[in-house]
Specification:
Blueprint (H helix, E strand, L loop, with lengths): L2 H16 L9 H11 L7 H17 L4 H15 L7 H14 L5 H15 L4 H16 L9 H12 L8 H21 L1 H16 L7 H24 L1 H20 L6 H15 L4 H15 L7 H15 L1 H7 L16 H8 L5 H24 L3 H15 L2 H6 L4 H4 L1 H13 L4 H18 L2 H9 L1 H12 L6 H17 L5 H16 L5 H14 L5 H10 L10 H16 L3 H20 L9 H14 L4 H13 L6 H17 L6 H6 L5 H17 L6 H15 L4 H17 L2 H6 L1 H10 L2 H6 L1 H15 L1 H5 L7 H30 L14 H5 L10 H8 L10 E2 L18 E2 L22 E2 L5 E2 L3 H8 L48 H4 L31 H7 L45 H29 L1
Antiparallel strand pairs: 1-2, 3-4
Helix pairs in contact: 1-2, 1-3, 2-4, 4-6, 5-7, 6-7, 7-9, 8-9, 9-10, 9-11, 10-11, 10-12, 11-12, 11-13, 12-13, 12-14, 13-14, 13-15, 14-15, 15-16, 15-17, 18-19, 23-24, 23-26, 25-26, 27-28, 28-30, 29-31, 30-32, 31-32, 32-33, 32-34, 33-34, 34-36, 36-38, 37-38, 37-40, 38-42, 42-44
Subcellular location: Nucleus
Pfam family, one: RRP12_HEAT
GO cellular component, one term: nucleus
């Protein structure tokens, strides 16, 4: 009963000490209070002990405690740790737990003494002491002690001492704890002295990579994470100063390269992952040191039987990203020669395409362009000799090489110096090679975009210099008629490239192109196809023209909107006008400011002449005009009705624009000025009513915070009236309004109108209910989730049984989903990922040390020990030794022989080897079992010519074949005494009926008798002609359990000489149907329930007889 009081007092004292100034800590009374807390850090009661330890940890971390007081705490802890020699193991464990949190704050001398004490304790050959000691050192290193507390040379000495405490390679948990401790030690050393760290790091790589030969998955994963972290934190900073640390980096590369030449088996993915991290961290600065390693990796991939292809390609991709494609292609050449069709290095092409970054165009011109030329020439040569297969192979390889060009163009560094050598080639290929057109267009766009993003004047000038060459070619390609979707895609890509190229083109060139295009539009003899495409080009050229040219286009072309009867042409005019309205160039803005009234008049007055397909472009023009006007109310009478009618348009972009207009109006105009217009639309035809409801829903969504309660209630009342009408369109839209309302407002506000909502859903017409059942379900699901099924059922009329049933079902589904989410949350919290993946976060040392060994394979001796009752779960310890080498416990490295895992247990193979049980059945030559009845088995045992030796088999009671189950179709020697159970094939198709084989009859009419392996193995049993005539021909499935069915009574009855009948569920394919899962579960429950009921009745009847 004193535990809560003591805990509270300890908490008060810790808070009091935290609040003290630094000067107070030098007073002896303060240390006395501190001693009173320290007394309880090893207390036997866990709650009191944890409270005291927490108080000390908080004081050390978050107070103005002085070094003298910290030294006082350290000496107290050291004294308690060393008490282990007098038998205080538990005390030492408690103190080590505390040291994990506070050790990094100790002064220099006290930290040294504390580390020595911990290391001394770890030599006691006690698994728990070793684990807790490692945990304390890991906590100290992870918290990054100050350099003046843990100098670099002392950190290095600690690393050297930890090598003596390396656990055996087959002891998983201690090895994982040791690895993470060494990881933190090296990272902390690199933070203080990178030179000293690199001097010791090669030893770590050499020692840890040896663990890969053990083939233990958990150990390999821990080693990979450890070395990867060290590469990132230690090797990467050293790589920046490459001349100084070339030697250790080169030795690390040699160690990893040697691993590739050895047979490391399942450790190869880990090694490739390490190499990928190595290339990532050091490839940019130490590329020349890594090329031998890269060459060895590529040679592995040349083997067609290599397994880990994706891991290896990821490693090569990492090298390409950091070292650059030029070094990689020089180290790993493609080896493409005329006449050779092996293409062993063709796997490099997609790897290059995905990983090229910050490359140079010169690399493509020097290394890849000649290869593409070789492939092209060889393909042409093979076409001439009519070798189509070879020609297609080389053409495909050539296309893959050219596909690398966009990757080179993404972020090039030499546009101004190297594009000139490539420009003429690309221009010629644009005209002559349709198959490469998309690649070249993408290249041009990426080069221009990169130049604009980096604002490199030289690159922009270089690309702009070739605009006079490329733009006419692009214009001609876009103006050419095409056939097929592929060429149409190239046309659209050409238009996008034109738009991008115009950004860096000279104004003189754009003016010239604009004048030519305008002449073609005004030429009445031009074809309609030419006119439409030229207007697309005019739209692209428009932002780069002077206001006089824009006015000329407007007056001579766009002003014809009212006059034209060509719907496509009218749509183009609206799009030209839209471009003028949205363009942000200075000339367009000047033209708009001067002609805004004229444009307003043109757009607002052309409603009667506008075509249906122009609706979207016209609406966008209205939206732009609405945003530019100072008095939006003046345009409401024209814009709002048109926007309302477009909220149900078939075009998605048109609908989005309509809702944007409604949102703009809601934010800039008082809703009381136009709400009546929307409500008036509810009295129109079904289409108008439906559109008005959707518009009202949008307005309510935007003005939810300022909506008047009176208007809100009026809207809900009108929506309720419309929902119960007989028109499907109106009722469905009314439900959409209700869905928006539920999503917009809080559940407290919805609860006020809940009875009205339920009444509306109940009173809907049956036809509308059926048509809008999905929306109704969504509404009910939200209401059930908010208010519960019982609350809703009270509001539903008793006569509406359908709605009540739906609510009950939704409530069940909600409960089921809630339970599933809870179980998923729990399973997610308890799931432990032990497999190696790149993105996994490594385990903390607490998780490693708290893991259980319950998943490890057990030997027979351990099983027997586990079967005995245990008084206490005690940690087991083994000594790994043999008759020739006895462990010397006075040696400091004796801890290598003390293991928590039983020696000899192989964890590399996850499957547990078990002795094969002796079978009562014979085995056929192809591995199938021979199951026969008693008579046939007796005859077989007497046969001297039997191929299978059963002489050493023990005599056992022969098992009776379960009646009602037919023998397998794959029996090696079918019995003549098998009984064909009668059944019916009614309702089954011929294919399904013939898919299940029947048993042999006593007469075999077939001359050929199946037997052996492969296609000669017996699959179907022969049926005599008499049975075929009786059955109607064909083979039929067996109705298992039919012989137990009673003739008069219900259920099954016992048969003489046969086992008791039993309830069962047949394993049918339809049981996997997700939609029938609940039905199948109900069947299982019913069977179990019936079995329990029958058992209870039988028990009561038996008791009555007694």
């Amino acid at each position: 009963e004193k535990v809560p009081i003591i805990r509270s007092l300890l908490g008060c004292l810790s808070v009091l000490l935290r609040a003290q100034e630094a000067a107070v800590w030098n007073v002896s009374s303060t240390l006395q209070i501190l001693d009173s807390i320290l007394t309880f850090i090893i207390f036997s009661k866990p709650k009191i002990r944890k409270a005291a330890q927490y108080g000390i940890a908080v004081i050390v971390k978050n107070s103005k405690i002085t070094p003298n007081a910290l030294g006082h705490i350290a000496k107290h802890c050291i004294r308690l740790v060393e008490s282990v020699t007098t038998g205080g193991v538990t005390t030492t464990l408690h103190v080590l737990t505390l040291l994990k949190e506070i050790m990094h704050k100790f002064p220099k001398n006290e930290m040294k003494e504390c580390c020595e004490s911990v290391l001394k304790v770890m030599t006691m050959k006690n698994i728990l002491l070793t684990s807790c000691g490692m945990q304390a050192l890991h906590g100290m290193l992870e918290n990054r002690p100050a350099p003046n507390c843990l100098p670099a040379h002392r950190n290095a000495r600690l690393i050297s001492a930890l090598y003596n405490y390396q656990p055996p390679s087959d002891d998983i948990q201690p090895m994982q704890a040791w690895l993470v401790t060494m990881q933190q030690a090296y990272i902390n050393l690199a933070r203080t002295d990178i030179s000293l760290c690199m001097a010791n790091i090669v030893k770590l790589f050499r020692q840890l990579t040896e663990l890969y030969h053990g083939q233990r998955p958990d150990i390999m994963t821990a080693v990979t994470y450890c070395l990867q972290a060290i590469m990132t934190e230690c090797v990467a900073p050293a790589a920046h100063a490459k001349p100084k640390f070339n030697q250790p980096i080169s030795e690390i590369a040699c160690i990893l390269e040697d691993l590739l030449t050895h047979k490391v088996g399942t450790a190869l993915p880990h090694i490739l992952h390490l190499l990928s991290a190595f290339f990532k961290e050091c490839g940019e600065h130490c590329a020349e040191l890594l090329t031998p390693c890269l060459k060895s990796v590529a040679e592995l991939r040349d083997n067609t039987e290599f397994t880990y292809k994706s891991e290896l390609e990821n490693t090569v991709g990492s090298a390409i990203r950091t070292m650059g494609p030029q070094i990689v292609i020089d180290t790993v050449p493609f080896k493409i020669t005329p006449g050779d069709r092996q293409f062993k290095r063709s796997w490099l092409l997609p790897v290059f395409k995905d990983n090229i970054k910050n490359a140079t165009l010169k690399c493509f011109v020097d290394r890849f362009l000649p290869l593409a030329a070789v492939c092209r020439n060889e393909g042409d040569r093979l076409k001439k000799v009519n070798d189509q297969i070879g020609a297609v192979s080389y053409d495909l390889l050539q296309s893959q090489i050219w596909a690398l060009l966009p990757s080179f163009s993404a972020h090039p560094t030499d546009i101004s110096t190297s594009f000139g050598s490539l420009a003429k080639t690309l221009g010629g290929l644009l005209n002559s090679r349709k198959d490469l057109r998309l690649i070249i267009l993408s290249t041009l766009r990426k080069l221009i975009t990169h130049s604009l993003e980096t604002d490199n004047k030289g690159d922009i000038a270089t690309m702009g210099k070739y605009a006079k060459n490329y733009l006419p070619i692009l214009f001609n390609i876009y103006m050419t008629k095409v056939t097929g979707s592929d060429e149409e895609g190239a046309r659209l890509a050409t238009l996008e490239t034109i738009k991008v190229y115009l950004k860096i083109s000279e104004k003189v060139l754009t003016k010239e192109l604009f004048d030519r295009a305008l002449e073609k539009v005004q030429n009445k003899e031009s074809e309609e196809f030419i006119k439409e495409n030229v207007m697309d080009l005019l739209k692209a050229l428009l932002p780069y023209q002077q206001d006089q040219d824009i006015a000329k286009l407007y007056n001579e072309v766009i002003a014809k909107i009212k006059e034209t009867d060509n719907h496509k042409e009218q749509k183009k005019y609206y799009r030209l006008l839209e471009e003028i309205l949205i363009a942000d160039s200075e000339s367009c803005v000047q033209f708009l400011n001067a002609n805004i009234d004229q444009i307003n008049e043109l757009v607002l007055g052309s409603l009667n002449k506008s075509a249906t397909n122009s609706k979207g472009a016209r609406l966008r023009c209205l939206f732009e005009l609405l945003k530019r006007t100072e008095n939006p109310i003046s345009l409401l009478d024209t814009v709002l009705p048109e926007a309302i009618l477009c909220v149900k348009d078939i075009n998605n972009r048109c609908r989005e624009t309509a809702f944007q207009i409604l949102g703009h109006i809601a934010k800039n105009v008082d809703y009381k000025d136009y709400i009546n217009i929307l409500i008036a639309g509810l009295a129109g035809n079904p289409t108008m009513t439906s559109c008005s409801l959707l518009a009202l829903a949008a307005i309510v969504y935007y003005i939810k915070d300022s909506l008047d309660p009176v208007i809100e209630e009026q809207l809900l009342y009108n929506v309720g009236l419309l929902a119960v009408c007989n028109t499907r369109e109106i009722a469905s839209t009314a439900l959409s309004f209700i869905k928006v309302y539920l999503s917009t407002f809080s559940r407290e506000k919805v609860f006020k109108y809940l009875p009205q909502l339920i009444k509306v859903l109940s009173n809907m017409a049956e036809d509308c209910k059926r048509h809008s059942r999905t929306k109704t379900r969504d509404i009910l699901a939200r209401l059930v989730r908010w208010f519960g099924g019982e609350s809703l059922l009270k509001l539903v009329p008793n006569k509406d049984e359908t709605l009540r049933t739906r609510i009950r079902n939704l409530a069940k589904i909600q409960i089921r989903h809630q339970k599933k989410r809870e179980s998923d949350r729990q399973s997610k919290a308890t799931t432990d990922i032990s497999t190696f993946t790149i993105g996994n976060k490594q385990k903390s040392i607490e998780e490693i040390l708290n893991e259980s060994d319950s998943d490890l394979p057990l030997d027979d001796d351990e099983v027997e020990e586990n079967e005995r009752p245990k008084k206490k779960n005690k940690q087991k310890t083994w000594i790994a030794e043999n008759a020739d080498e006895i462990v010397d416990f006075t040696d400091i490295r004796a801890s290598h022989k003390i293991t928590g895992t039983k020696p000899g247990s192989n964890l590399a193979i996850p499957t547990l080897k078990k002795a094969k049980p002796k079978s009562d059945f014979k085995t056929a030559p192809d591995g199938r079992l021979i199951i026969m009845d008693d008579k046939a088995q007796d005859m077989e045992e007497d046969d001297d010519d039997d191929d299978i030796d059963f002489s050493n088999r023990k005599k056992k009671k022969k098992k009776q074949v379960i009646p009602g189950f037919e023998d397998s179709d794959d029996d090696y020697e079918p019995s003549d005494d098998d009984v064909l159970t009668k059944t019916t094939a009614a309702g089954l198709g011929l294919k399904r009926a013939l898919s299940v084989s029947t048993l042999n009859s006593s007469t075999n009419t077939n001359k050929y008798r199946a037997g052996g392996t492969g296609i000669h193995r017996p699959i179907k049993k022969a049926v005599n002609k008499k049975e075929k005539r009786k059955k109607g021909g064909g083979n039929f499935p067996v109705n298992t359990g039919a012989e137990y069915k009673a003739i008069k009574a219900k259920g099954d009855i016992k048969r003489k000489g046969k086992p008791d009948p039993y309830a069962y569920l047949p394993l049918r394919r339809d049981a996997l149907n997700k939609r029938k899962r609940m039905k199948n579960m109900a069947q299982v429950k019913n069977i179990l329930k019936a079995a329990k009921t029958g058992a209870n009745i039988g028990r009561k009847f038996k008791m009555k007889k007694k």
